[in-house]
Specification:
Structural class: mainly alpha
Distance between the termini: 54 Å
Number of strands: 0
Number of helices: 7
Order of helices and strands: HHHHHHH
């Protein structure tokens, strides 16, 4: 199991460019659909938690999946597996190529990779929206967050996405508390 965790996440690390968001759809494909180590709901939860905790999202996801499968050794194996490829590539590049990004072929390759990364991130977002619980509250928060992020990007406002996430959390908690109080009042009247 530990070797399987290590090799699976090492493969994800080697063949995914663009960071954690680009890796989400590949992690989901491997861990939810192929190996069935976690459910889709767990993947959505770990993505949200990994996004809101310190550290790279892909490493946090790998650590969660590894821990769920084999405890602390599994978390270490999965985390090490996802870190090794990036470390090895950067180490090799730094050793042998002083002006790596000045090479024309490399520059053009990275331009193509940018497009692929954008598509991977879009695919992960679409998949999450499709499988999201279809409650009115979650749809309204998603729509408002999307419109807020769109406005922030269009008008180049200096606004942190973390602040937007915290605002969504506060609104959700406020509505949850209000509904809970309303339910308790309804139960007390009977």
């Amino acid at each position: 199991m530990l070797l399987d965790l290590f090799l699976t996440f090492m493969k994800i690390g080697f063949f995914t460019f663009g960071g954690g968001y680009a890796m989400i759809s590949i992690i989901e494909n491997n861990c939810v659909e192929r190996k069935q180590w976690i459910t889709h709901d767990e993947m959505m939860n770990v993505t949200v938690i990994a996004e809101s905790t310190p550290g790279p999202i892909a490493i946090n996801c790998a650590t969660f999946v590894g821990y769920k499968q084999a405890g602390f050794p599994g978390a270490a194996a999965a985390t090490f597996g996802i870190i090794v490829p990036s470390f090895a590539v950067i180490y090799i590049i730094s050793m042998f190529l002083d002006h790596f990004l000045e090479i024309t072929v490399i520059t053009h390759a990275f331009q193509g990779i940018k497009i692929a990364v954008g598509i991977l991130i879009l695919k992960a977002g679409i998949t999450m929206v499709k499988k999201m619980q279809k409650g009115t509250l979650s749809q309204m928060i998603m729509l408002c967050s999307f419109l807020a992020m769109l406005a922030i990007n269009i008008f180049a406002w200096n606004f942190s996405s973390i602040s937007l996430m915290l605002a969504a959390v506060i609104v959700s908690l406020f509505i949850f508390i209000a509904k809970d109080r309303q339910k308790q009042k309804g139960g007390a009247k009977r």
